[in-house]
């Protein structure tokens, strides 16, 4: 199998996790260069590569040094959100396949630039949305494809994760979330759970997102947290955060379905992606890991707690084929194994010269939600038209891809 010659750009918390826990153990991926804007992170990443894999590795603080290396054929962009698009554009123009970590766009023009540059260069551009390979998300999608949900009408999900400590100590840890939460008010992390929902609803493959409306609550969570946990930081305590504590986004699709996304990261709570699917024959609710099937569960209408957690009893029959095989092979590191799956999907499309399961049109559509939500919130929740990045090609439904990583 062809070896992927990889350059890694961004070695903060996320970059090091993927490097140390996942990529380092892939024998068909050779890491030739690492980069971070902070020299100490770049040096530490290079040392980790040298210790874990044989061969020389370039260490730099300027990503352009990596793009000049002709032997490199793939780039993993694991850096701060605002750097994703500029680096991706430069990498595609340099003839490199691009794997880009999740994060929203800062303007719709950024998304159009990704699409146009990919179309001009033919380079792979794939968002590393690991939740598309979530075991439950794929099982529910498999059941939808089998017709068990009837006609799907509504989906919901979001990023529900208490990030107050990470944000509060963003200056000390050099984390980009702090500056974003101080200065923006938007759904800054929509692709958990939009990615899996978009695939389930055939977005860009017979369906598309038409309009978006977003609303943000007041911002109180970070000020309360800082007053209690970091009172000595008087400057940060006196600074107002723009980012609302809870952002709700409603999307209408061309086939009539609705999607509700929620960003909830600055109030005390448990982690959840809030995955929810409602169809004419069934419902799935991730908060309590339960299915409700029409004609099967009505006796539990008013005592549904007795059925909480019933999802596991459907796994044997309806597990997605990818996860059936993955469980037999042995689930790897990285967010319960999904980091490995999304990276393998990228690396194998580079090796085989095939299209990625999450293509540039998916990437652009999902990222655009951040920029559009910011504009909608600023206009009091005004509905905004969502661009058709496919130029009408979404109307033509494509067959499943001939790969175990197929998401169609």
Layout of helices and strands:
Elements (H helix, E strand, L loop, with lengths): L3 E6 L3 H9 L7 E7 L3 H14 L5 E3 L2 H5 L6 E4 L6 H10 L3 E4 L7 H14 L3 E3 L7 H11 L6 E9 L3 H5 L1 H4 L3 H7 L7 H10 L8 E8 L4 H9 L4 H4 L8 E8 L4 E7 L11 E4 L2 E4 L4 E4 L21 H4 L2 H9 L8 H15 L7 H19 L5 E2 L23
Parallel strand pairs: 1-2, 1-4, 2-3, 4-5, 5-6, 7-10
Antiparallel strand pairs: 7-11, 8-9, 8-14, 9-10, 11-12, 12-13
Helix pairs in contact: 4-5, 5-16, 6-10
Quick rundown:
It is built from 16 helices and 14 strands.
Describe the fold and architecture.
The protein has 408 residues and is α/β, with parallel strands linked by helices. The chain folds into two domains: 4-130, NAD(P)-binding Rossmann-like Domain (Rossmann fold), CATH 3.40.50.720; 132-317 and 359-395, Dihydrodipicolinate Reductase, domain 2, CATH 3.30.360.10. The chain is built from 16 helices and 14 strands. The protein has helices spanning 13-21, 39-52, 63-67, 84-93, 108-121, 135-145, 164-168, 170-173, 177-183, 191-200, 221-229, 234-237, 315-318, 321-329, 338-352, 360-378; strands spanning 4-9, 29-35, 58-60, 74-77, 97-100, 125-127, 152-160, 209-216, 246-253, 258-264, 276-279, 282-285, 290-293, 384-385. The strands form two sheets. It has an eight-stranded mixed beta sheet with strand order 13-12-11-7-10-9-8-14, with helices on one face. A six-stranded parallel beta sheet has the order 3-2-1-4-5-6, sandwiched between helices. Helix 4 runs parallel beside helix 5, helix 5 packs antiparallel against helix 16 (360-378) and helix 6 (135-145) runs parallel beside helix 10 (191-200). The protein starts with a strand and ends in a 23-residue tail after the last strand.
């Amino acid at each position: 199998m062809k070896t992927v010659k990889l350059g890694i750009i961004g070695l903060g918390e996320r970059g090091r996790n993927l490097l140390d826990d996942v990529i380092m153990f892939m024998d068909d991926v050779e890491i030739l260069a690492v980069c971070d804007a902070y020299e100490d992170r770049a040096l530490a990443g290079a040392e980790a590569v040298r210790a874990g894999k044989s061969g020389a590795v370039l260490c730099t603080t300027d990503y352009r040094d990596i793009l000049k290396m002709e032997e490199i054929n793939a780039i993993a962009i694991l850096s701060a959100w605002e750097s994703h698009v500029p680096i991706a554009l430069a990498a595609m123009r340099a003839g490199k396949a691009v794997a880009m970590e999740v994060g929203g766009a800062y303007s719709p023009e950024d998304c159009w630039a990704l699409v146009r540059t990919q179309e001009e260069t033919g380079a792979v551009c794939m968002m590393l949305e690991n939740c598309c390979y979530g075991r439950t998300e794929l099982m529910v999608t498999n059941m939808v494809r089998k017709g068990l949900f009837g006609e799907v009408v509504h989906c919901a999900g979001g990023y529900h994760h208490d990030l107050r400590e990470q944000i509060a100590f963003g200056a000390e840890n050099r984390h980009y979330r702090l500056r974003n939460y101080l200065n923006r008010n938007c759904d800054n992390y929509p692709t958990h759970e939009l990615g899996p929902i978009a695939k389930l609803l055939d977005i860009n493959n017979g369906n598309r997102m038409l309009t978006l409306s977003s609303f943000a609550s007041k911002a109180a969570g970070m000020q309360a947290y800082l007053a209690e946990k970091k009172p000595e930081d008087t400057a940060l305590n006196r600074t107002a955060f723009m980012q609302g504590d809870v952002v709700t986004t409603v999307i209408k699709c061309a086939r009539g379905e609705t999607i509700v996304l929620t960003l909830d990261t600055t109030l005390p709570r448990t982690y959840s992606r809030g995955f929810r699917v409602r169809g004419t024959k069934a419902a799935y609710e991730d908060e309590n890991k339960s299915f409700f099937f029409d004609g099967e569960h009505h006796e539990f209408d008013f005592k549904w707690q007795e059925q909480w957690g019933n999802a596991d009893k459907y796994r044997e029959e309806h597990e997605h084929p990818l996860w059936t095989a993955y469980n037999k092979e042995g689930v790897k590191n990285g967010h319960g194994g999904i980091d490995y799956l999304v990276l393998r999907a990228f690396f194998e499309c580079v090796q085989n010269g095939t299209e990625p399961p999450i293509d540039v049109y998916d990437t652009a559509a999902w990222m655009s939600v951040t920029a559009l939500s910011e504009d909608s919130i600023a206009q009091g929740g005004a509905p905004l038209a969502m661009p058709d990045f496919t130029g009408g090609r979404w109307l033509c439904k494509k067959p499943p891809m001939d790969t175990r990583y197929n998401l169609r």
